Model the fold of this input.
Amino acid sequence: MPRLSSVTHGIYCRTLSNHTPCDTHFRFNRCRGEHLSLQRDISRAVYALADDARRFREDLARNPEPSREEYRTAAKIHAKLAATGLQPVMARSGRGVIAEVGPRNRPVVVLRSDIDALRMQDERNVPYRSRVDGVHHGCGHDVMTAGLVHAAGILADIDKHGPGLPNRVRMVFQPAEEVAEGAQQMIREDGVLDNAVAAIGAHSWPRIRAGKYGVLDGRIQTSHHGVELILRGPGGHSSVPTPTTDLIRVGSKFSTALLEGMEEFARGMGPEAQPAFAYGKAGGGESRNVLPTKFTFNGTLRYGDVEEFRKAPERLRSLAADFAAHAGFSDYELNIDSAVPPVINTCADKVAEALTAGRGPKVVVREFDMPKGGDDMAFFGTGVDDIPGAPWIHYTQVGVVPKGRPLGEHPYLHTETFDADPSAAGHAAYHYAVMGATRFDYPRDRGKSREMAL
Amino acid sequence: MPRLSSVTHGIYCRTLSNHTPCDTHFRFNRCRGEHLSLQRDISRAVYALADDARRFREDLARNPEPSREEYRTAAKIHAKLAATGLQPVMARSGRGVIAEVGPRNRPVVVLRSDIDALRMQDERNVPYRSRVDGVHHGCGHDVMTAGLVHAAGILADIDKHGPGLPNRVRMVFQPAEEVAEGAQQMIREDGVLDNAVAAIGAHSWPRIRAGKYGVLDGRIQTSHHGVELILRGPGGHSSVPTPTTDLIRVGSKFSTALLEGMEEFARGMGPEAQPAFAYGKAGGGESRNVLPTKFTFNGTLRYGDVEEFRKAPERLRSLAADFAAHAGFSDYELNIDSAVPPVINTCADKVAEALTAGRGPKVVVREFDMPKGGDDMAFFGTGVDDIPGAPWIHYTQVGVVPKGRPLGEHPYLHTETFDADPSAAGHAAYHYAVMGATRFDYPRDRGKSREMAL
Done:
């Protein structure tokens, strides 16, 4: 990264005198020098704020909060935005933040970051390793959050001291993505889709180099259901297990039957179907010599192909019924959450054009190892209940792999050693700021994207 | 149960004036009336103390403490014994109690009760339901503890005011039976087997009517191992499970392979072999969409037939190795605890004779639905390290099933609704007091029973 003084010298004279390491502003008043594109101005502004963005991200990484508990995180975001001169508003949940900037009479462009961490160990050997036992930003939401917080300062400067913003920009810091609750809640309770013509999200992606952006149209995240299988029994002494009271025995067979049945179901689908059914959590019992009275499996059911996905819950239910009948075990519940839709991008060319304008064509990659996960960002495109989604939606994959490391060797999302290159928060800030500052011809038909919903 | 006044009138005149509901003494000074056997005296003394024993038991039931945490329980026992005029000593662990009474120059008869509860819910609808969430006296140790505490008062009275005790009686209140630690610890640390010629234990048994005692020679509890299976993996996102990273999938198959393999091993053994391998606890993972990095199963491996039992751990290990090789999954640990030996009774006729002397022949049952569990009471017979066991050992099954309920319908040990008839604490007190007060011709050879050890 170039040194601050060499980047800014001769372009933004006020910056040199005003910038301090904890300053999220980067003045857009030009006093002299050549004219550059807005995106190049933003890129240079980001370089100046990169250290601060990195530090903000590292604070979140050290103090991660799991889904439904993002109080400190929201407070930190709120404080930082307020210090930037914005007037942030707490989400009704107290765990999210909204801030707006730009002309009030223009359509709204939503910039969205999720802010929650995961209940898992952080096993990284880094100074910003989590201090909270069993909680880790293993999905990199800390990086995108720091990016959007710092983009806010840049956008505020463009609005106040620079050429102005083409649209009203609404920055949405969303909690509880990992449990697929936060997006729907903020859309319902906080009106984050009101007048929205576009919604732009971003995610840390461990299969793209830091400094590059994965941009494409169509499905960028799969649809998925949360699945919960609960077995119940009378319990008892471990010396007298029976086929229906030994819940760990019957549960092991039950879970295997569902996994193998869904694999059978997936066989013959094309690679686009990307089937994945797996449990992330299972447990029951307190003592080795007492049969448990309850045993629970929690997992996710995912299919990239929407048509196949529609059939999957029914198949899962019938597999469970078959197993239960065969095993003579009836005391179970199979709960399948209503689906989170796929995230389907609709304006990749525009996004690519804007991102390359500031940093050159090499920063955008249009083909990359695709994620198979899901994200409730999808609801920003589909809408919720009677609230229409934004007609334009783009979910950008922000590269986080450090220079020199083969892409395939970077720890994957949701691993104990997942990390993002320290520069990634700045790259995320560039992405968000460019998306907020660039003039697009957004469509007016706000109901258009709802047909993509399940 | 007869009213106190009608029982005691004309037999023990001091009792009538001295007895209060919280008094554990029952004076053995006779002032007039017919002569009765010592055991009948004890039986009548127990009736007088039955309400107090019931209340003491109900206090333990309301305030259960799981294995390794029996501090309050030990303190309550200590206080009650001290109030009875005994000089109880805390175990070195602070979680057990020892008290002695009777002539110091005589061999020692150990009366042992275990005092720990289980980590499980108490779902009984009774006034003495556990107030501690997730902890329950589901094995009835509260009942035997109350019995032994109240036997102590009777034995102290016989020693001081009555005909005297034939042996030194050492009452041992042992913690951590459910985790098979307490007996060995008290034998090593507290010398509870020093000079012991007999060790008498008792247990609540849900297949015998309250007021009756199950008495037999030979194996009364099976031998068992604690088994722990730990799987480890790199974790990851639930959208990209693989055969070796999806620990709940591989764990379900692994546990099933071990269960089915051990059933195969057990087939062809006689009913005496009583094979039982089951898991009481399993778990791993924190989030439905994050593959766990560790998954653990905890269970017990039991065989009534000692010869078969000796072969079981090796078989289990080879089943695990076979599964791992077949599945291409090598990152596991199979930990099999050193065995708890079977409890093998050696003096049933003497015990039966003494118990019937006070309450008639019907109180002893010699054939009953046998327990298949284990108890570290076994170490009182086998000894530990170089410390020899007691040559005489008897572990009595104390009936707890209320009048009118079919024996097979009473909730089994380690269930959330396991309970003991309110009279059972008194019946346990009778058993312990008779065992402590009766003159037996104990063998002098203190090493004899060690051959029964594994």
